[in-house]
Amino acid sequence: MNGFLNFIVSFATTPALLVGMIAMLGLILQKKPATAVIQGGIKTFAGFLVLTGGAGILVNSLTPFSAMFQHVFNAKGIVPSNEAVVALALVKFGTPAALIMLVGFVVNIILARITRFKYIFLTGQAMLYVSTMAAVVLASAGLGTSWETILLGGIFEGTLLTVTPALTQRYMRKITGNDGVAMGHTGNMGYALAGFLGEKFGNPDPDKSTEKLNIPKNLGFLRDSTVSISIVMMIVYVILAIIAGPNFVQSADLSNGTNYIVYAITQAGTFAAGFVVVLQGVRMILAEIIPAFQGIAAKLVPNSKPALDVPIVFPYAPNAVLLCFFVSFIVGVLSMLVMLGLHTTVIIPGVVGIFFCGGAAGVYGNAFGGVRGAVIGSFVNGLILAWGPLLILPALGSFGAGAASTFADSDYIVSGGLLGLTGKAGSGALIALILGFLAVVLILNAVLNARDKANAK
């Protein structure tokens, strides 16, 4: 039984396998030939491996950046990192987290089937992270790790992952030019806010898009995203390496003797290479998963949309990704300096989370608001990433007090912070909140359906 459960959990938390099988299921439901089913499944599977491989390259190139940054600023504190905090939490909460994730996926499928929120959340690692957060917060609030925690955590996760893609879908349609794919990431609340602020305060003129920045002709080569990303990151890495000094950079923990300037340039180039790999993986996935999803939409969940990981939007506005990563990062640095001055818990900017969330927020802000909207959206997102972790730390109880890391993205901050705050009023209040959340979604669905029927008359 434990071996079978381990297989199911491992399968469900491996996005490449999960999405590859879903692509095959979609093609089977369309009664495609066996060769087309196998081809579609393998290409989707490989596309996800390419994407995650590229993301891994990005993360590895940002690790020395983060180390040099902490050395330069001599800052010690909490680093927002979903991967780090989940790895620590699973040691104690592994079983309830895995079961919450499975229940949550079932709840997601059911809600997508019976409501207008037709989003199937397919980012396996994000599902695991949300379930882990739910397990920690609910246990810290006094519910323990019983079956009630698993059921309530699953209801909470499934509901959250069904409705948050809906928050961003209006902007996704603008970004991608179609309604075939949704955002399946735990920064959705921040992205929706970035899109809203960009639309309200940005410039809607298409010529003001980040992708149409007026670059002089002799600098036209910078329009190539690979070239521009490489140059910008080289400048930043080299400056940081010079400030950190050769003794630190050339230590065994970083370059291991390689010249510190050469090492900085290489890491910057590696970052750009990772970005290119991510874009290729995205193209492969979209080419297969959207046609395959038509079969699932027709049979299991009519009109459903796959909610995929955050790099899915990067190819549509690579200039916004790069520009707004730096905007969010600068906001994080300035916020850290303010925290040092206030003598509060210091949140050290998590470079990986800021890159993915800050960059994506820029894409959303740019959708309706151009450069101005992208900057505004990523600026506010930077504030959320910088100060929000202070809100969720108390919700993690004794685990949060002893950890050097915490959850990073907006959806964790908002939902986890709310769960933790409610849990202080007792387990009854927490149960009421989770069931109330589900009830609100169902009532909202009924109201919106009634409105649409009235408008159709």
Cα(first) to Cα(last) distance is 55 Å
Helix content: over 70%
How many helices does DSSP assign? 16
Quaternary structure state of the chains depicted? single chain
Indicate the radius of gyration in whole angstroms: 22 Å
State the secondary-structure class.
mainly alpha
Number of strands: 5
**In which order are the strands of the major sheet placed?**
2-4-3
State mean pLDDT (0 to 100 scale). 83
Poorly predicted spans: none
Helix and strand sequence? HHHEHEHHEHHHHEHHHHEHH
User: Could you describe the largest sheet, including whether it forms a barrel?
Assistant: 3 strands, parallel
Looking at the structure, what is the overall shape? globular
Beta-strand residue percentage: under 5%
Can you tell me about this structure?
By secondary structure, the protein is mainly α. The chain is built from 16 helices and 5 strands. It has a 3-stranded parallel sheet with strand order 2-4-3, sandwiched between helices. The termini are far apart. The model has no long low-confidence stretch (mean pLDDT 83).
Blueprint (SSEs and pairs):
Elements: H1 2-12, H2 15-29, H3 34-73, E1 79-80, H4 82-114, E2 119-121, H5 124-143, H6 147-176, E3 182-183, H7 188-201, H8 225-244, H9 246-249, H10 260-299, E4 305-308, H11 318-342, H12 351-387, H13 389-392, H14 397-402, E5 405-406, H15 410-423, H16 427-456
Helix pairs in contact: 2-3, 2-10, 3-8, 3-10, 4-5, 4-6, 5-6, 5-15, 6-7, 6-12, 6-16, 7-12, 8-10, 11-12, 15-16
